[in-house]
Amino acid sequence: MTAADCLARCLTDGRTSGSWLRCSAGAMRSGLPARRSSGIALIVLALSPVAGQVFAAVTISSAATQNMSCANGVCVPTANNAVLNVADLETLLASGNATVTTTGSGGIQADDIDVKAGISWTSTGVLSFNAWRSVAVSQPIAVNGASGLSVLTNGGGAGGMLSFSSGANVSFLDLASSLSVNGAAYTLENSIAALATAIAANPGGNYALANNYDASHDGTYSNSPIPTEFSGNFEGLGNTISNLSITAPANTNTYVGLFAEIGSGNESGGTLADIALRKLRINGQGIFVGGLVGRNDGAISGASVEGSIQSDNTNGSAIGCLAYTNVGSITLSSAGCSVTSVGLASNGGLVSGNDGVITQSYATGAVKSGASGGAGGVVDYNQGSITESYATGAVTAGKDSAIGTFIGHNRAASTSQTYGTGYLKATNKNPDKGGYVGDDTSPPGSIASAYWDTTTSGFAKLGRGAGNIKNDPGITGLTTTQLQAGLPAGFDPTIWAETPSINNGLPYLIANPPEKK
Length: 517
What we know:
Strand order of the largest sheet: 26-29-33-37-42-38-34-30
CATH topology of the largest domain: Pectate Lyase C-like
Number of helices: 4
C-alpha cells in the first residue's frame, strides 16, 4: 500500500476500533477511530420535474390571472397551464383562507406550481399550495403574521420535492408560526445556538431555519456548533447562514462542520435540505472537516457551501467543502471553498471521501493537499457512485500524491457523465497524476462518459485521463473549445445543457445551474 493509499484510506474510510491511524511513509502505524405555526398554513403538494422536460404548471406571477377559477378561497386551473396573479392571491389571503391547486374539474391537471413573484401577507388566513408534481420557488415568500406553512409533496405523482432558486426563500416573522412538511410538524429556529439546543434535546426532531442568519455575532466556535449526532430532518427553506467561523481542534475523534454528523452507520440517517453557507471560515488543527457536515450518513439535497477551510495539522487531515465524508447521498448540491492542508491530506472540492451516492452536484473551489496524500476536484477517495457532476477548481498536491481534476483515488467505484476542468499543479514526483483521476483501481467499465479539459488542466502533453493507466477506458480528454461545442458523448440532454452565458459555455446541470455572480 502506497503512502497516498494509506492516508486516503485511514482519513476517508474510517474503520472501527481503536485509536487514530497515522499514515506515514506508506505505513499504517496504529488504528483509526471507528465511525466507519399559528394562523396561516401554506400546503404544497409537489412532484419534482425531470430536468429538461416541460410540464404544465400553475404559475404565480405578476401577470394577469388566466385559466384559473377562484371561489370560496380555492383557486383551481381551468386549463393545464394557468396563471394566478400574485396580487389576487394576496387579496384572498387578506380576507381569509386561500388554496391554490393544480387539479381542476373534468380531467384538468397541471403538474407543478411555479412561484415566480414574491408573496407576503400578515393575516391569519390559510394559504395552501396543492400540486401534482413540483413546487419551484423562484422569489421570496414572507410569512409576516402569526401564520404558518404546510408543505406536502407528491400529491398524485412520485419523486417530487420543494426547490428554491438562488435568492429565493421562505421567511417567518413569528417563530410561533407553524410549519408542516409532508404531514410532519417542524420547529422554527432563527439562530445556530437555538438550533443546537433543540437538536441536543431531540436529535430525531424536525427543524427549519426561519430566516437568513448572520453568524458573525456568534464569534468563533471552538468546535462544531451542532455537535449532537442528528437523525431528524432539517429544512433550510432556501435561507442562508453567513460568516460562520470555526476553529477546528486537533481531536482525532471529532467530526467538524456546522453539523458534526448526520445519522450514523447504526441509525437511520437524517436529512439536510435547501440550505446555503456563505463566507464560511474553518481553520485550526482539524482532521475530519466538512463545511456543512463532518460525516454524512443521511441525505443532503439542495445544499450549497462557499468559503475557506484550512487544516494546519501536519500529521494528516481530510477536508471536503460540503462534507468530510459521504456514506449517504448528496444531490443537487454545490461547493465553492478554498480547501487547504499544510501536511498529509486527502482533500476534495465537494467531499474528501465518498462511499455513498453523489449526483447532479458540482464543485468550483481550489483544492490543495500536501505530500503523500491525494486531491480531487470533487472527491479524493471514491468508493461509491458519482453521476452527472463536475468540477472546475484548481487542484494542487505535493510529491507522491494522487491528483486529478475530478478524483484523486478511485476504488471499486463508478462514475458516469462527469468532467473536470481545473488547473492541475503536480510535481514530477507525483506518480499518479491524471487529467481526470490520479489513481484508478476500479474494475474495467466502472468509469463511463468521463472527460477532462486538456486546455485548462495544463496537462495537454500528459495525454492520460488516469495517472496509473494509459488509455483508461471511459475517460476522454477534450479541449475547452470541444467541451463548449456541444454536450460530450454520453451526456443526457434532459440533464445537461450548454449556453455561452452560463458556466463559461461548458456543460451545466439544468436542475442545478451555477449561481449568477
